[in-house]
Specification:
single chain; 187 residues; alpha/beta; Beta Polymerase, domain 2; five-stranded mixed β-sheet; two-stranded parallel sheet; 4 helices; 20% helix
Length: 187
């Protein structure tokens, strides 16, 4: 199925969608508002023959919100489709895709745990990867990293800047590549 045919079916279904041309892997991206998420997934499964649910995840864009992406594939037609929606606000929610694709269950649980996206109607939304009692969503950009609080961030100093003010700058001795005699070539 060509990109034009896919766009035609999306438009005929009345989905208010935007699309991007296929990337190097041949996956066209279709973006819809969150309210049309399940309609787009249903269209992909029923009309575009995308019967294989590959993955679902999210990306935190602090300004726009959390973008949820799903990759589906047609085994018969051999075409990829990347589905996308953006969720604004502190409590992002989407309806669960598990009624259309059973394979979405694990991915939705992971996305809920790591990004805080709640999937309404999910059959088993319990913890998946994080220990019981863990607070926060570690892949959100507003999540404080404990490592940055306990040790100095590697990029905190410019190269050649002393670790502590007033200390001498320690340079590195240039290493000679293996097999090259010391002092060669002479300068």
């Amino acid at each position: 199925m060509t990109s034009e045919e896919i766009l035609g079916l999306v438009a005929a279904a009345g989905l208010d969608a935007t699309s991007e041309p296929p990337a190097a892997v041949g996956a066209m991206t279709v973006t819809v508002p969150a309210a049309r998420w399940l309609a787009l997934l249903g269209l992909a499964r029923e009309r575009l023959d995308c019967d294989f649910f590959d993955w679902l995840s999210a990306v935190d864009d602090e300004v726009a919100g959390v973008a949820v992406l799903a990759h589906v594939y047609s085994l018969a037609g051999r075409h990829h489709l990347l589905l996308r929606t953006v969720l604004a606000g502190d409590q992002p929610r989407l309806p669960s895709a598990t009624g259309l694709y059973r394979g979405a269950a694990w991915h939705e649980r992971e996305t809920q745990e790591m990004f805080g996206v709640v999937f309404d109607g999910h059959p088993g939304p319990g913890p998946l990867l994080l220990p019981d009692g863990f607070e926060g969503h570690p892949l959100r950009k507003d999540f404080p990293l404990a490592a940055r609080a306990t040790q100095e961030w590697p990029g905190a100093r410019e190269p050649g800047e002393p670790a502590e003010p007033g200390q001498p700058v320690r340079g590195r001795r240039r290493a000679v590549p293996p097999g090259v005699p010391e002092g060669w070539p002479a300068r």
